[in-house]
Amino acid sequence: MTAGRRIPWQRALLYLVLVGFAAFYLMPVYVLVVTSLKSFAEVNLYRMWDLPHSFSLESFKKALLGGFGFTGLAHNFVNSFYVAIPATLASAFLGSLNGYVLSKWRFRGSNTLFTLLLFGMFIPYQSILIPLVQTLMRLGLYGSIPGLILAHTVYGIPITTLIFRNYYATVPKELVEAARIDGAGVLGVYTRIMLPVSMPGFVVVMIWQFTSIWNDFLFAVTIAQNPAVQPVTVALNNLAGSYIVEWNVQMAGSLMAALPTLLVYIFLGRYFMRGLLAGSLKG
Amino acid sequence: MRRRWLKGERLITLLLLLPSVIAVAVFVYGFIGWTGYVSMSNWNQLLPDYTFVGLRNFFKLFAHPRFQIDLRNLAVFTALFLTGSLAIGFLLAVLLDRKVRGEGFFRTIYLYPMSLSFIVTGVVWRWLMNPGSPQMGSTGINLLLEKLGLGFLKSGWYTDPRVGIKAVAVAAIWQMSGYVMAMYLAGLRGIPEELREAARVDGASEWQVYRYVILPLLRPITLGAIIILGHISLKIYDLIVAMTGPGIGFSTDVPAYFMWETTFHANRFAQGAAIAVILLLMVSLLIVPYLIFSVRREAEV
Q1: Distance between CA atoms of residues B282 and B231, nearest Å
Q2: Which residue of B97, B119, B174, B291 to mutate against A (max A Cβ within 10 Å)?
Q3: Are B112 and A123 inside 8 Å of each other by CB?
Q4: What is the pLDDT of residues A199-258, one digit of tens each?
Q5: Looking at this predicted complex, what is its ipTM?
Q6: What is the CATH number of the domain that holds B252?
Q7: Nearest chain A CA: its distance from B162 CA (Å)
Q8: Would you say residue B99 lies in a domain?
Q9: pLDDT: is A246 or B265 the higher one?
Q10: Could you list the residue range(s) of the whole structural domain that residue B70 is in?
Q11: Which residues of B touch A277 (CB under 8 A)?
Q12: Residue of A nearest to B5 (CA)
């Protein structure tokens, strides 16, 4: 009814504004794609909005494999996966255990404990960076991928706990009680009742963790400075900061660094959204 | 018999929590304490020196011209980033809520920047906001503005110290406003149509419906968005690194950037720790009341 009553020009204006904003959000991607498809000969800052005349994948190849004066990003992609996959799995698993206990086995002080855990999600990591480096050095993990995995796992616990706690809260109490009457203990309820229905929760948590670990820069640049173990965000920042590297190669590198999380977002957007909204404590 | 059984179960639940509790106790609270201790030490060279010097590092810091600029920049950035993201996010949510054809399509486009790293955003926006030169001509956004006949909007962006951090805020708004849109849209969908209808029947104009019915109902979402964006804003670091660095006359510098540089480049660990403590205090002022309020309210339900 509201839609039918509306005057046509108002409707047109509405779409005009929506399309205008869409153009604003897409503008950087347009430049990324168009520039990375140009060959070195064609790259020109003063023609950056023009479409490429020919189709060239040269810049992608260079960004991956390197060229004069710089190494490619190929092994940094591998590093990022080495860090993101184990840290995602480990923090998701721990979050699932915590979420289970904190939603189904509440005890006196469990809400306080939960609040204390959640605080870890918001702290500026600068406030733990110096002790983290010192500790990792002492453990022999500084400058290594396992060190980075450890950091991401630990600092991932608050958000994964939050998402799982809210998710498990939706599992009916009756299911848990029924299993208890059948003689299931704490672990039995977890493996027989909770885990089988946990899939959507795991998807949300893993997407969230993978995205934030892949995109992390602060831990990576602090813990993994060594080129051999650098994740892609650090390597990309170095690549883009270098005056030797051509502009189209920088754009191709950025596009590729963005691709894994972008694909996750495009294909699993629904779950991505849920993680986002969970981040605001709403579940 | 039953009591002991219960006790055993209680023990198991605590054992399940134990690894995480220990990890967070050490890596969050222990480390924060450690940083606090460093901030009051004399450790301003490569090798640790834990001689206690009280609040000296903090006094020095607040007298430091760079830190004063940083705090001002952070205030400007936060104000712009929050108002910009909230305004654009709310506008887009309201527009998308008007039974738009292709809503999913628009929503996907508005939200995708959220999935990118600040490094990618920074690298792209550095090129977009590269102003070009008067001799050679405009580049990036300036060039686009010229082509659209909006040449009067051209700017030196981050290369102009008077703009500085405001240019970075534009990129941050680009990245995060879609998130606010998603939050508001979820909120709008939760408001029953009958409420709006009732207001309309009472003779409220469309504007009044939003002003007096919708906005008050969305207040918890606005609060949530302010908390989330606020803490991101206070911690902003990656975007600065990739986009501008500290800038001319520190015009794009922020405390988080200063902290990293002074700690890990200049080995002034105590000074870095002091900045970190101040950052933590600022974030805590924002987060702690909200956290306690949220968990408590939920417990009451």
Answers
A1: 9
A2: B119
A3: no
A4: 889 999 999 999 999 999 999 999 998 889 999 999 999 988 877 778 888 899 999 999
A5: 0.90
A6: 1.10.3720.10
A7: 23
A8: yes
A9: B265
A10: 18-300
A11: 182-183, 186
A12: A185
* Residue B101 backbone dihedrals phi, psi, to 5 degrees: -75, 135
Report the number of distinct structural domains present in chain B.
1
- pLDDT class of A1 with cuts at 50, 70, 90: very low
Q: What is the CA radius of gyration of chain B?
A: 24
Q: Minimal Cα–Cα distance from B10 to chain A, Å?
A: 8
Residues 6 or more apart whose Cβ sits within 8 Å of residue B251: B69, B73, B158, B161, B162, B163, B164, B165
The answer to whether position B257 is within a domain reads yes
Q: Pull the structure tokens for residue A243.
A: 């005056």
| A272 to B291: CB separation less than 8 angstroms, yes or no | no
Query: Is the CATH number of domain A74-278 1.10.3720.10?
Result: yes
Band of the pLDDT at B122, cuts 50, 70, 90? Answer: very high
Alpha carbon B56 to chain centroid, angstroms:
29
Q: Which residue of A has its CA nearest to B21?
A: A117
| pTM of the shown model | 0.91
Interchain CB distance below 8 Å, A131 and B35: yes
Domain boundaries, chain A: 2-71, 74-278
Q: Which residue has the tokens 């600022």?
A: B282
Provide the mean pLDDT of chain B: 90
pLDDT for position A283: 33
B8 in any annotated domain: no
Classify residue B7 by burial, with Cβ atoms within 10 Å: 0-12, 13-18, 19+: exposed
What distance in Å separates residue B138's CA from the closest CA in chain A? 7
Q: Which residue of A has its CA nearest to B225?
A: A280
pLDDT in tens, B200-239: 888 888 888 888 888 899 998 999 899 999 999 999 999 9
Tell me whether residue B82 is in a domain: yes
Q: Token pair of A124, please?
A: 């500026």
Cβ distance A281 to B127 less than 8 Å, yes or no, reads: no
Nearest to A130 among B27, B179, B273 (CB): B273
Query: Cα Rg for chain A, rounded, in angstroms?
Result: 24
Nearest to B275 by CA among B45, B112, B38, B99: B38
- Pair A244, A118: CB distance under 8 Å: no
To the nearest whole angstrom, how far is the Cα of A65 from the nearest Cα of chain B? 19
Give B201's contacts in chain A (Cβ within 8 Å).
none
Helices (H), chain B: 2-24, 31-39, 56-63, 65-96, 103-111, 118-128, 140-147, 165-189, 193-201, 206-208, 215-217, 219-234, 238-243, 255-264, 269-300
